[in-house]
Amino acid sequence: MAKGERTPDTSAGKLLKPPVPAFTKPPQQTELDQKLSVCSKLCFAIGGVPNQVAGSATAFFLQIYLLDVAQINPFQASMVLFIGKAWGAVTDPVVGFFITKSRWTKIGRLMPWMVGCTPFVVVSYFYLWFVPPFTNGRFIWYLGFYCLYQTLITCFHVPYSALTMFLSTDQKERDSATAYRMTLEVLGTLVGAAIQGQIVAGAHTLKHCPQHNNNTTVSTGHLGNGSGAEIVKRIKELYMIAAGVIGGVFLICTVVMFLGVKEREDPYISKTEKQIPFHKGFFLVMRHGPYLTLTTAFLFISVAIQLVQSNFVLFCTYAVDLRDHFQNIVLTILVSAVVSIPLWQWFLERFGKKTAAFCGITWMMPFTMMLVFIPNLVVAYVVAVSSGLSVAASLLLPWSMLPDVVDDFRLANPHCKGYEAIFYSFYVFFTKFAAGISLGVSTLCLEFAGYDTGACRQPAQVAYTLKLLIGAAPVAFIVTGLLILLLYPISEDVRLRNKLIQTLSHDIQIEFRFVLSPDHS
Q1: What domains appear along the chain, each with residue ranges and CATH number?
Q2: Which Gene3D superfamilies did the record assign (predicted)?
Q3: Which of 56, 86, 125, 325 is least surrounded by Cβ atoms within 10 Å, i.e. has the fewest?
Q4: pTM to 2 decimals?
């Protein structure tokens, strides 16, 4: 060493090293923040199709199936619908709890739930549409299989809903994936209604009294004897065929999702960080204002949609004499919804999610009332196209807004990690429970109005009740939900602020881990 040259201070060698760029080695950020490919988004969206296919068939046809095919009385049908929905609602938070306790596997933490329950969902769904040879125990049969189906479909739907948060950390990518999902889910609803409707609609038409032939045996009686019994047998076979087709769709879509979607670990939770107890996390979620406001608002809105869905076939059959067209009207509603999903995705990006919710859902009210007061075929198709716009908004917006609520919660409670499933499971819990109550009450209303099981015509009071269930009741629920949504605090400015804070926090966390890593020395 030359004379007069300073000897380096080896005790501070690390501090005297040339600075290393902070982001030269951030493998976790590179992996997690990459944009989702179109293929990944499509495969994720396809995973939501089977639930909607089966849900559409049950929403539109289960009530009339229980009343006119299985021929249980309206009170028993209302109990099946209410208890089944309520049971499904109760299982949502239970499944959410077990998901939070699940360990990470080679295929993820959520994927094993979806893949494992799929075969059992298909079996329970098939037997839900099977008419047993005995008559006295049919109520127990349908109640048992409907509760079993609700339990198993919950084991699929809750992890699938929570999977949105583990596709990407980028809000824009999650919103895009949600738009893909909603488009294909509405398409799935369309497929379910098409399969079920087109297969069984012809038989339902045969069952009713033809206006042009008042001398037929079926026109003046019930479906218990003679040719009526043969028609019922044919309808039973068609329902089972439809159930088998929908079960096949369920299996295929689940396999496609499993092969095309990669579940990613949560980047915001440290592997050495100890989670807070579940009950504390639950109470924190239930006290989060934006979550309560959003859930309550869409609870009322979803009840309105459910009322229209479950009573629409009965309404067309017995109230407005459109029994020969109901399957095509249903398809028109759903085609309109599928086509309008990209429109609402553009609208929410341009004007904000809250504005999109108000514009989209309000659109439904005047047209629903129009069909009640002007019940003709042309008006029915106009109403169908207009209602499809609102159905699309009601499906897209809550699932697009829930990730924003989760992000807001994470910023407000930085030490409460891994409880995303609570948000999704309890959202589904509240909406299912309310829908179960509305379905049970609406079927009881038909009982009080004098619904005659198996008859080809119904009393005038039944037609009046169906008009209330399709018109006034949904409008009241929608207005209530929109008034509550006014209190929703996450505006576009708040959402963008949360996104910026979360991105900065994530970057700082990665840089801090990199600086402290042994390789950095």
Answers
A1: 37-207+228-263 (1.20.1250.20), 276-520 (1.20.1250.20)
A2: MFS general substrate transporter like domains
A3: 325
A4: 0.69
